[in-house]
Amino acid sequence: MKWGALARVAFVGVVAYCAVALRPIDAGIVPNAAFGIVIAGFVIFLEDRLRQTPLANVVGAIIGGAVGLLLARLIGDAHFWANDDSLGVIFLHTLILLALPYLGLVLGAKSGEWLEPEHLVGLFRPRAQTQRRYRILDTSVIIDGRIADICETGFVDGTLVVPQFVLKELQQIADSADSLRRNRGRRGLDILQRIQKMAGLDVVISDADFPDLKEVDLKLIELARSLQGKIVTNDFNLNKVAQLRGVDVLNINELANSLKPVVLPGETMKVFILKEGKEYNQGVAYLDDGTMVVVDNARSMIGKTIDVVVTSVLQTTAGKMIFGRFIDANAQPTPIDREGGRRVRS
Fold first, then answer.
1. In the CATH scheme, what is the homologous superfamily, with its name and number, of domain 132-258?
2. Per-residue model confidence as pLDDT tens digits over 177-219
3. CATH number of 261-346
């Protein structure tokens, strides 16, 4: 038996014995023992709940409750002129004694993060240094997974914010009956765990929610507005809607496209011809980043690595395409249709 379980059993036994010995209720041994066991079980339940709560929130709740009790006592003493025998005055005192500690407990627990060392130290720093830059992650960019690689390189600054409603959506995807969606959801949860374990990276789970909004994209936009942060996504529609609403967006796809190698017409590059192209005597190759390279005069070189000369570069919404030409000294001149000037098959 583990020490934690043994300590709980001992605690229940001691409380039950004290209840039997002191008899807090006017009854026999069995009712008092049962009363002690119930009280001990309730305390163990609270202990289990507190174990899952961050220490800063627990300390904040204690401080808030103590402040509420102090205010209730001061307000009660200020009513010395009131008639203490009046039921209305007694009810007012009781309400103040219950309401203020409760409010202090709830507000203190919710604001417990301000008791963390980094926040306390930040109080003594200039305002410009304490301002945090928030990067709000959406569901698609978490499932995509490339954000974890970017975080490892150190190019992402500020605080990564994972909203609770995004976590809920990830969990629903992970619990889906569709195996493909289920695997995507589990991949997203694994990516989040990987990001949280990275040293030097500030990750915050936000409980902020907007019940009036049903769509997750609109909630992300409102959260970014309230935090004055930026949304990190690879969703094209979310990107456009956020920009229309005046919210800055960091698009992972745009970053990937901007990092693709730059080639100019006339340069020579080495590629592996993978398959036949759509046009006559064309071959198709792919760079390591997925960029398609269409090579003229390379149909016979499928399955080989060749040197090609870049003729043009085309930027499309789907990405970048490179067009090149394979110069073979042994190649025969291509037949030409004299009337239309088009290539024809021999």
1. 5'-nuclease (3.40.50.1010)
2. 999 989 999 999 999 999 988 888 888 888 888 888 888 899 9
3. 2.40.50.140
